[in-house]
Write a sequence for this structure.
């Protein structure tokens, strides 16, 4: 009798052995002190006293929203400035006129670091005769300096900027900011909305809603569920929403720009016979 | 914690068995289970309509089983009107999971009839031996020679069917001596498109298949043996006329190692432990289809590792069976779509997001004989079932629908059943009740935009589904006399939280042309009733008459019909056997399907009836045994389709066949 009991216990232990396993996934994140982690220099601008280095994640600038970081090196001491006050002014030089684009203030990334950051939204690309340049003005110890250089702004392969006259007669600019690397998932979508005040002045539009409707034209205009329209978390900031992408490939994100009172300034809802909106972004991944 | 509970429960169960009293009585060998025994190879031929029939055709003979047909090949078995999510199909006790999201590769497609010795069909919870089930189970047992004096056996088979020009070739070699046995079997089938009645060609119904099976055992002692076994199956160029896609390749490797021990002078009569592994690769493609809006590749992979350890014991009036079993399966399926514009990036998704299933179960059965005419049978099973999405891509995809979804989900599955059986003189009867649960399948819980061409909907899995719970009642009554054998059997299933897809109108389909998107949800309950009648009448020693009738009904809680429920179906046959000659005529058909389920894509299927005939002759040529069978199926060349033909595609028209088997 006992021997059988032993065997039975053996089986039970076998079952236990098969059923007990554990997974320890400890992802330890080590902080890095390197300010330039993930950044690539795409431009150096020099004047008599300083060299200004411009960085971005992609190592380039292009049409659309560009997050740009910079640091300023004193040519005599070879040290990077930590106490400068910096501003910039991008300008498009066209045959008949010059205009600017939406851009942010330039702020220090960290109090103790050497990097400064901001964004510039080039709403149009350069061409053979027309080009963008950036004038960077900075003040160090009450002394003002300036430097200007042409920047390369090629056209983006997908549509990332919509510039249009709204139903209210205002000229709006709506640009795709993120996700930089879209995934088959619920993505955090970030959109910028500005209006043109004059040729050189653009301001953030506050309190609107950017309705999003992602579609796949190659799959019979397949859509995805649980998208969240982009709204502003803080006045003067960018618009945040949720973008569901059910597969890789080419997606058209149809947009509608809606005022706080609910009136649609631009864009159409997708319905029978309407397969796309007049304003949209494109993603391909 | 759960694991500890599980162990404790197992221990309790064991001590309960051991605490049973000893009584001396013999057991009646009555089986509630339906066993279709083909027996040894010599018998195989004489028992089948065609010697080289397909497994599907063969299983279909059972009153419990029907087949959903999507083409000429690899039909999906229904047990008690329930599809494969609700049933359990094993090969020699091994759990195997198909790699096709469209169920184009049921487990039954990986065994050939030539190496099958028996299919044990268990109804409802009696089939819970190797895992959880609702409808029942099929265990396909392969041929295995027993140790005896040294002998070689070679067998060649060949066949041809006119309708689809199916060419069949097979060979089997068996070697046995007192210490070793080796069974090797190979089968090749190659079929073109078949023609429905009135000579209408059914495009994309061709297939090619090779199946290799080897089993070898070594005697380690008087009562111990070790057995290794391997199946390699490869099907290529398989057309599925009822589906928008075909299969370019389906490949399976199924391997196992078994240890058997039969203690002498002990309450334990048999102890068998098997470790197994199988891997299946399945590739759907539509490159040969003329009109496709978007070309797709849909490969799938399924890998399973498992073991079971099964003990049978006799103590007094008790016949015990204990089975501990585990498996670990990983299922992955992808879909790549090719946009019309070749410059656009490929569209890719995971339709099965690399889901692992880890199951640990214990099954116990006690057959207790009350007296020499009657016995009681109890079974109980417990299982822990864990699903985990191993792919981050897949988890992210599903989180589009279920924001807070976790990668892992644990379930606990229970089953219990009891039966009473009685047999005395010419009367036998039995009845039973059972309760069982099952976890949702990978498709039901984690499927991502799987297109069902029958309902014309894309389907999305639902990881939050509750377990399906079934309460079941069954009864049978049999009458047997010298010339007559009658049996009427019925089963009733009340399935709570019955899993079906429900349209979600807010979702936009992915598949071009699809009506919409369904999300798997639970109905409050559904009920399924199956009643079967079989009779056998022996006119004389030479002539036998069989009748078989099955009636099924399936409804949900709102009295809406369930899909794939058979209308009244019947078959009757006359079999004449005289020494070496045999002749058989079969008449079979279905009544009109009036209880069809339109919300699941069904429409009314008209009634049909067909006639099949065969003639067999066995003779000896020199030292070899020759068995030949020839016949006609669907003699009248009727154009018909049955309720279980996917999208009403038609069944084959008239076909002549010749089968030949030569044994040395």
């Amino acid at each position: 009798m006992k021997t059988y009991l032993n065997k039975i216990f053996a089986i039970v232990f076998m079952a236990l052995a098969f059923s007990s396993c554990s997974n320890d996934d400890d992802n330890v994140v080590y902080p890095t002190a390197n300010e330039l982690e993930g950044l690539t220099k795409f431009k150096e601008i020099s004047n008599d006293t300083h060299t200004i280095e411009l960085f971005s994640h992609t190592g380039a600038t292009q049409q659309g929203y560009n997050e740009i970081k910079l640091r300023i090196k004193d040519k005599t001491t070879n040290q990077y400035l930590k106490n400068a006050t910096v501003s910039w002014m991008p300008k498009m030089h066209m045959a008949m006129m010059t205009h600017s684009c939406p851009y942010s203030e330039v702020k220090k990334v960290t109090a103790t670091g050497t990097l400064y950051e901001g964004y510039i939204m080039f709403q149009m690309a350069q061409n053979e005769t027309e080009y963008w340049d950036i004038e960077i003005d900075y003040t160090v110890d009450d002394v003002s300096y300036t430097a200007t250089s042409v920047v390369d702004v090629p056209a983006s392969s997908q549509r990332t900027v919509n510039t249009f006259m709204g139903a209210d007669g205002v000229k709006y600019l709506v640009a795709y900011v993120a996700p930089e690397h879209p995934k088959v998932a619920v993505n955090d979508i970030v959109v910028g909305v500005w209006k043109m005040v004059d040729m050189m002045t653009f301001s953030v539009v506050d309190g609107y809603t950017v309705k999003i409707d992602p579609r796949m034209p190659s799959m019979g205009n397949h859509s995805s569920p649980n998208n969240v329209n982009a709204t502003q978390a803080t006045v003067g900031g960018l618009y945040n929403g949720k973008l569901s992408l059910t597969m890789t490939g080419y997606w058209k994100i149809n947009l509608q720009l809606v005022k706080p009172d609910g009136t649609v300034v631009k864009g159409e809802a997708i319905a029978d016979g309407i397969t796309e909106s007049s304003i949209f972004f494109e993603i391909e991944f | 914690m759960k694991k500890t509970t599980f162990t404790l429960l197992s221990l309790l169960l064991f001590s309960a068995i051991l605490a049973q009293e000893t009584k001396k009585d013999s057991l009646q060998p009555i089986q509630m289970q339906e066993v279709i025994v083909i027996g040894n190879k010599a018998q195989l031929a004489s028992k089948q309509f065609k010697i080289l029939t397909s497994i599907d055709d063969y299983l279909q003979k059972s009153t419990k089983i029907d087949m959903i047909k999507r083409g000429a090949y690899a039909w999906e078995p229904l047990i008690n009107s329930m599809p494969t999510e609700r049933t359990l199909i094993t090969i020699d006790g091994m759990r195997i999971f198909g790699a096709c999201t469209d169920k184009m590769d049921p487990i039954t497609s990986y065994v050939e009839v030539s190496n099958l010795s028996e299919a044990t069909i268990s109804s409802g919870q009696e089939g819970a031996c190797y895992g959880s089930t609702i409808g029942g189970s099929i265990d396909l047992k392969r041929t295995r020679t027993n140790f005896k004096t040294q002998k070689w056996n070679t067998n060649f088979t060949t066949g041809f069917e006119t309708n689809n020009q199916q060419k069949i070739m097979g060979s089997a070699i068996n070697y046995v001596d007192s210490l070793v046995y080796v069974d090797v079997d190979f089968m090749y089938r190659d079929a073109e498109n078949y023609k429905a009645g009135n000579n209408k060609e059914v495009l994309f119904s061709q297939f090619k298949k090779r199946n290799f099976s080897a089993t070898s055992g070594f005697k380690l002692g008087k009562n111990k043996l070790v057995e290794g076994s391997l199946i390699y199956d490869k099907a290529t160029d398989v057309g599925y006329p009822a589906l928008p896609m075909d299969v370019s390749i389906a490949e399976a490797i199924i391997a196992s190692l078994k240890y058997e021990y039969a203690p002498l002078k002990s309450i334990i009569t048999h102890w068998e432990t098997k470790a197994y592994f199988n891997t299946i690769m399945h590739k759907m493609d539509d490159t040969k289809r003329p009109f496709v809006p978007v070309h797709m590749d849909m490969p799938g992979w399924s890998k399973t590792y498992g073991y079971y350890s099964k003990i049978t014991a006799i103590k007094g009036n008790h016949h015990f069976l204990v089975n501990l079993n585990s498996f670990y399966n990983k299922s992955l399926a992808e879909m790549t779509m090719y946009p019309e514009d070749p410059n656009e990036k490929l569209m890719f998704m995971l339709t099965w997001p690399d889901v692992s299933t880890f199951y640990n179960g214990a099954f116990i059965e006690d057959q207790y004989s009350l007296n020499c005419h009657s016995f009681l049978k109890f079974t109980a099973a417990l299982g822990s079932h864990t699903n985990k999405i191993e792919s981050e891509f897949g988890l992210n995809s599903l989180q589009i629908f279920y924001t807070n979804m976790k990668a892992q989900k644990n379930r606990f599955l229970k089953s219990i059943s009891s039966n009473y059986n009685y047999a005395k003189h010419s009367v036998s009867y039995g009845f039973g009740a059972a309760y069982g649960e099952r976890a949702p399948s990978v498709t039901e819980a984690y499927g991502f935009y799987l297109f069902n061409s029958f309902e014309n909907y894309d389907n999305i899995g639902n990881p939050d589904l509750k377990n399906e719970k079934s309460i079941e009642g069954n009864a049978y009554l049999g009458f047997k006399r010298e010339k007559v054998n009658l049996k009427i059997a019925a089963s009733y299933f009340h399935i709570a939280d019955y899993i079906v897809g429900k349209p979600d109108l807010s979702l936009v389909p992915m598949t071009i042309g699809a009506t919409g998107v369904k999300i798997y949800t639970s109905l409050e309950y559904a009920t399924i009733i199956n009643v079967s009648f079989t009779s056998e009448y022996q006119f004389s020693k030479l002539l036998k008459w069989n009748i078989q009738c099955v009636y099924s009904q399936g409804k949900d809680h709102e009295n809406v019909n369930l899909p794939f429920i058979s209308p009244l179906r019947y078959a009757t046959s006359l079999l004449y056997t005289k020494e070496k000659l045999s002749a058989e005529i079969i008449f079979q058909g279905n009544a009109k399907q009036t209880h069809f389920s339109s919300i699941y894509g069904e429409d009314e299927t008209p009634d049909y009836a067909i006639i099949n005939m065969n003639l067999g002759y066995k003779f000896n040529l020199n030292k070899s045994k020759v068995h030949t069978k020839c016949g006609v199926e669907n003699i009248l060349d009727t154009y018909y389709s049955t309720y279980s033909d996917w999208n009403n595609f038609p069944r084959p028209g008239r076909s002549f066949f010749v089968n030949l088997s030569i044994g040395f």
User: Anything to note?
Assistant: Chain A has two domains: 40-151, 161-284.
